[in-house]
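User: I'll paste a sequence; please echo it back and then give the predicted structure.

Assistant: Echoing your sequence first, then the prediction.
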Amino acid sequence: MRASRALLACLLLLPTLACQAGGQPPVDSPAPDRPERSAAPDGKDESLREEALALLDERERALAAGDREAFLATVDPDELGFSATQARWFDNLARLPVSGVSYELGDEDALAEVAGRGDLQLPVEFTMRLRGFDRRPVTQQTAWTFVRSGDDVLLADDRDRAVDEETGWIPAPWDLAHIEVRRAGGILGVFDEDTSEHATYVMSDLADATAVVKRHLPAWSGRYVAYGTSDTTAIGAMSAMSVDDTAGVAFPVLAREGGPVAAYRFAVTPTVVGDVISRGLVFRHELVHVALASTDDRSPVWLAEGVAEYVARSTMPVDERRRIAAFQLSTATGRTLEPSRRFYTRDPALSYNLAALVCDYLATTRGEAVLWDLVRTFRTARSSSSAGTEEVVRRQLGLSTDELTAQALAWARAA
């Protein structure tokens, strides 16, 4: 499945989502071992500002140097949950090919409508890059909560639920659990404790899938990051279908909100990770989306998903593909190719099977180049309406989508 860029404008890579801090103690009953809070409103104590900004620099230096002790020394030890997730996050990043890390003060207007927490809240931009996989650094907006602890200023949280909801932040695997990282050539695989037992076989299957996709799309670099984790939070947020109906999703990672794409990646569900029979098919499908990147952004959904599914199934003999399609679509009559995102909601199984058959029919009977030519034509098409889609198809192929569907079904059933 292909995730839309609009849905993922803020899919950037960041420290873990911590639990919201509990309610503040009554003014006349301060928390043990902490001085009285200032009279400033929550999150607005500007007397901490200079020390808070110094803390940004301390954390940046510690993270860049791989100094775990110095990094965790900036965290409030009284926030036990946050301390634990920060330790885990630091360890996770140490396993990744991270470069260019930095913390910078962000746009303070971003917190204007956010209820303050702690003694001081500041917007912070976190930047990092997965070396060898991201074309440019990736920056995300966050909100840090600082507290005074004796003579020190410490970090009590690096996320704010309201800000996350506003920006649409979606966690990466390293934000959620301990990860295991595998690398083979241009493939970076990210697993967690529940999926790592399959990592060796998954990496082998990824390499096989990459080779297949490169045969169809030789200009693709074959370099990418794949997530195979047990937490389906990100997949659930990105998919137009339910998680139960989604095997995987490919998505763009933006350099910053509204900015250019830094990388295309894909994630699969834990069921797929452990499924020896079907995961190769899913990997090939999602890798077509990764390889095409933005090339098929303006294609009708049936074409974008159809070419991916055609490549995924291309390892089978053509007569076998025809027989399978005939069985899958044995009751399909009068069904048109769906160009919109209703493709994923009306009857997704039928939509995928029909789109796959149509693309297979075109590639087999006219040559595969006709598919990529059609994708490129849609990239520059001026209209994205249903009528515009039909016009492009008729101009390129000499028939309507209904006629194309009828011919493809007849071809499959004649096998």
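Residues 12 and 30 are 37 Å apart (CA to CA). The mean pLDDT is 89.
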